[in-house]
Amino acid sequence: MDYKKQVALLLMLLSTQVWSFTFNNSVGASFENDEVRVDVSNQTCSQLGITQSELLSLAGEAVNIYWNSVHTSRLELTKGSIVSTSSLFRTDPICSGSLNPCIPNPDLIVPSGILIACNTNAANFASTAVLALTVPNNISGDKLNGALILINDNASNQFAGKSREEKISILAHEIGHAIGLGHSPVDDSLMFHLSIDTRQALGWDDIDGVTYLYPSEQPLGGCGSIENQNSKSGFLIGLLLTFFLGSSIRSFKFQRPRIA
Ligand SMILES: [Zn+2]
Fold it and tell me: In this predicted structure, what is the pLDDT of residue 101?
């Protein structure tokens, strides 16, 4: 865990909230750069009823309404472009073998940033109810280089019937996986897996999660000034840290690559 993440973790532990966010990989990986592009594959989305350009527009709204609104996070997701990719992104399984645990398909590695593609592979989408799959499939140590989001583009897929707002919140949920978050057990969260398409904003656990993975520079100065100005509060903070570190840090979960 690097220094900035440790500081962000300690500041979150000072909160009276219980935090429950999880990661979708075993190392808590995150993108190193502050700015991360979200691109769309040029492979067709024939069954979604939308063009690649419209899909890119939805992704742009998803990052701005949700993940770019967190002031304690350094992450800035940007709407990229429609990029030329192999047709395998439309036809191939996202994992080699089973979906869980997932060994990323080497033919679908995303070199950098986040790529969204429409896909028809039956191993990816066992039913029309599976809306999308996401795997951060290019990780070096705890550095996330690239992540792939596949949207179900089979006939009768249920993504096509969603409203514009629902499609945006579903994409925002998948982008949450792409930046390193797993599912949250907190039902008032975008990353809670049962109410994705009804969300209109991030919940506090989503904000804690993205702040942990992408801490902004701002909290670093505030931490020192608190302790320097009041030794009594510094002592209290020490007690709180001892309590929280002893009781809460074990709720911090790492998971294998998240695929839904
Ligand atoms: Zn999910």
Answer: 87
Tell me how far the alpha carbon of residue 191 lies from the centroid of ligand 1, in angstroms: 6
- Of 100, 167, 179, nearest to 131 (Cα)? 167
Q: How far does the centroid of ligand 1 lie from the alpha carbon of residue 176, in Å?
A: 8
Q: How far is the CA of 260 from the centre of ligand 1 (A)?
A: 4
What pLDDT digit, counting tens, does each position of 150-189 carry?
999 999 899 999 999 999 999 999 999 999 999 999 999 9
Q: Which range has the worst mean pLDDT, 17-21, 55-59, 229-233? A: 229-233
Residue 239 Cα to ligand 1 middle (Å): 36
**CA torsion angle 122 124 128 129 (round to 10):** 160
* Domain layout of the chain by residue ranges: 3-219
Q: Which residue has the tokens 């990989």?
A: 25
- What whole-number distance in Å separates Cα of residue 177 and Cα of residue 170? 11
User: Can you identify the CATH homologous superfamily of domain 3-219?
Assistant: Collagenase (Catalytic Domain) (3.40.390.10)
Ligand 1 centroid to Cα of residue 228, in Å, is 42
Cα dist from 208 to 71, 72, 186, whole Å = 11, 9, 12
